[in-house]
Amino acid sequence: MVASPKKFLIEKRWALVAIIVGAILGFGSAILCIAWNLVIFGFNIMYIVSPLLAGFVETIIARRKYGKSTGAISALITFILINGYGWFSPGYIFPKEPVRLSLITIIAIILTLQAAFPTLINYILFVVGIGTVRKFIEFLIFLPSRIQRRIPEVEEKKEVIGPSADEIFLDELPVPLLSVPPAEGEKIKKYIGLVGGEAVAKEKEVEGRVSKLTKLIEPTLLDDMYLGEAKEKAISRMLDEAESAGANTVIDVIVDYVSTGGLQGSALIVTATGTAVIVGRKASNLEENISKKEPKSELDKKTSNNAPN
Amino acid sequence: MLILTTPTIEGKKINKYLGLVTGDSLLGANMYKDMFSGVRDVVGGRTSKYEEELTNARKLAIESMQEKAEQKGANAIIGTRVAYHNLGGTMGNTIMVTVSGTAVSYQE
């Protein structure tokens, strides 16, 4: 892929300079640490300080000159160098200092690797690590019922009759929202423009320690998300934007859902977009509609003050 | 400039169709930032910061689309669609907002 080694070198010269300077500084600091015998808890601080220093200096130089991070390669080089020195050097410069496997050494290794390969190590830490812990908790929680050969109980769902609470407010609007282009019989007086609203659907807070643990392993249900509230919020925000621009309704409304999150959990984003317009069959009708803002603003207050409980 | 999601402008005549215009913006690519502020907001119930960012992202995308339409000499964009995509990945939480529409010039 590289056109020529020379061009590659010229392009990456600052990245290379950053790595080399970082590695030299890191190794230099390690030599100083040994020379001054900076030992804490029977352990030379160079194993932590030197890779961190190397990575820090490299990142600063790379950010300033190269434009982006190089991934703290020098931290890794320093780490390998000082460990190689500790294990294999004959010890003619300084007294030989063998690396012992301890908690601090392991933390230092993880820190260094994390600096060098952030994506990979984060994946291992957050996905593989947390996943393992989850499986373990799952095993512990269902162990009693497994011994008793009983299936954990599942609550029966109640049936919902009629429109859900979040859909009632749509009926209270003076002019109905439309999900289609202009309705027949209604005259559009003026187009205002594109309006939209977004809201993040919260997950329901779980009470109690045991249920918090079981929450980790249960599949997410529709009831666990405040989806209706988020939908109401998104539509209210869109309406607010439309009303502040002087429109009295929104046509061609599309409500959409996007899942987000990833490693840290899941959340749903609810979005509503549409075209704000002024409609009205008669001028008096329009005046009436605009003066009838009370119910909506009240509802909006209710939505924004809705504390999680 | 008039930006509409409807395919027509009622009562106005469209003189010329100037072609497709698009705009996009990204939101929240930094994992650490998300971990310590954005997602805590989401999990802890204070969602406003993330939602504000979303609104900003949409406005940025629309602005860039509007610029392109203005360069073409349009005075309206019709049939606009706003879409939100989750790019995911191990870093998580990267949302892409895309808008697309048709630039037109109509008789005012």
Report on the structure:
The complex is a heterodimer of chains A (309) and B (108). Chain A folds into 2 domains: 112 residues, no CATH class; 131 residues, 2-Layer Sandwich (Translation Initiation Factor IF3), CATH 3.30.110.70. In chain A, 29% of the residues are buried. In chain A, helix 2 packs parallel to helix 4. Chain A is built from 11 helices and 5 strands. Chain A is elongated. With 309 residues, chain A is of the alpha+beta class. The C terminus of chain A is likely disordered. In chain A, the strands form 2 sheets. A 3-stranded antiparallel sheet of chain A has the order 3-5-4, with helices on one face. Chain A has a two-stranded antiparallel sheet with strand order 1-2. With 108 residues, chain B is of the alpha+beta class. Chain B has a single domain, classed as 2-Layer Sandwich (Translation Initiation Factor IF3), CATH 3.30.110. Chain B has a 4-stranded mixed sheet with strand order 1-3-4-2. In chain B, strand 3 and strand 4 form a beta hairpin. The radius of gyration of chain B is 17 Å and the shape is elongated. The N and C termini of chain B lie close together (11 Å). The chains are: A alpha+beta (309), B alpha+beta (108). At the A-B interface, helix 6, strand 3, strand 4 and strand 5 of A face strand 1, helix 1, helix 2 and strand 3 of B.
